[in-house]
Amino acid sequence: MRLTIVGCSGSFPGPDSAASCYLVEAPFEGRTFRLLLDLGSGSLGPLQDHIDLRDIDAISLSHLHPDHCFDMSGLYVVRKYHPAGPPPRLPVYAPAGSDWQLSNAYGTTAPNGMTLPFEFRDVTDGFAATVGPFTLRAMRTPHPVEAYAIRVEADGRSLVYSGDTGPDPRLERFAEGADVFLCEASFVESADNPPDLHLTGAEAGHIAAAARVGRLLLTHIPPWTDRDEVEADLTTVYDGDYRLVRAGDVVEL
To answer: Where in this chain does the record put each Metallo-beta-lactamase domain (predicted)?
Structure first.
């Protein structure tokens, strides 16, 4: 597998990165299969530096906060109105009701225009599916809206994406033995953080250490958060292989 960090800014796009969007690629039936994990605010532009938007094969949305899904509106336009004609409907794995919420966000008309270019498939806790060369699994995480961590496996390699989450011991089991753990770290230990919302670098490190992951990639750091402080929090508890990702990073699994 190859992981490309298209956007990694937390909560909203920053000056040097779009919001959450991660491109996962693997060989499949003589070609490259392309799966997107989230398509957050501002990510549709830089995504075109990496692939043609018509070459997306599937999308997995961790949850429906704007920084993880709102550029679906732009992709709707591409899939519906491209001069080359509409491609086949694109599978979108997302929480139940995503079709209507995204349709309302764009402003499509009844019955539900968002379902014209996209085929929505509901994700629930414990969800599992085969998507091209990938096996997808989902675990619900603590967050103000229905949200999921996603595990992606192909050809003996594994990537776990935390999505947005507060601390949850189940994440240790879900990420167990992953080659790469792409984990949010929006908070710092020195702040008075609200519960069940996000992780600090130290909390992400605790999960990664307990899960014995190969590499920890910290993501979803908001523009107002000091990356050095996030890293310092992490290194107080974690001595494994890690990186604070930036937009454009490419990781081979």
So the answer is: 18-206
- In the chain, how many domains are there? 1
Element (H, E) at 229: helix 227-235
Hey, which residues does 243 pair with through a beta bridge?
A: 217
| pTM (2 d.p.) | 0.97
How far apart are alpha carbons 8 and 70 in whole angstroms? 14
In angstroms, rounded to a whole number, what is the distance separating the alpha carbons of residues 246 and 8?
Answer: 7
Q: What CATH number does residue 178 fall under?
A: 3.60.15.10
Please report, in tens digits, the pLDDT of each residue of the chain (253 residues total). Answer: 999 999 999 999 999 999 999 999 999 999 999 999 999 999 999 999 999 999 999 999 999 999 999 999 999 999 999 999 989 999 999 999 999 999 999 988 666 778 889 999 999 999 999 999 999 999 999 999 999 999 999 999 999 999 999 999 999 999 999 999 999 999 999 999 999 999 999 999 999 999 999 999 999 999 999 999 999 999 999 999 999 999 999 999 9
Preceding peptide of 111 cis, ω within 30° = yes
* CA pair distance 141, 168, nearest whole angstrom: 7
The angle that helices 98-106 and 72-81 make with each other, rounded to 10 degrees, is 80
Strands 58-60 and 31-37, how do they pair?
parallel
- Name the phi and psi angles at 116, rounded to 5: -70, -50
Distance of CA 242 to the CA centre of its chain: 18
Q: What range does the domain containing 216 cover?
A: 2-252
Paired sense of beta strands 2-7 and 21-28, if any: antiparallel
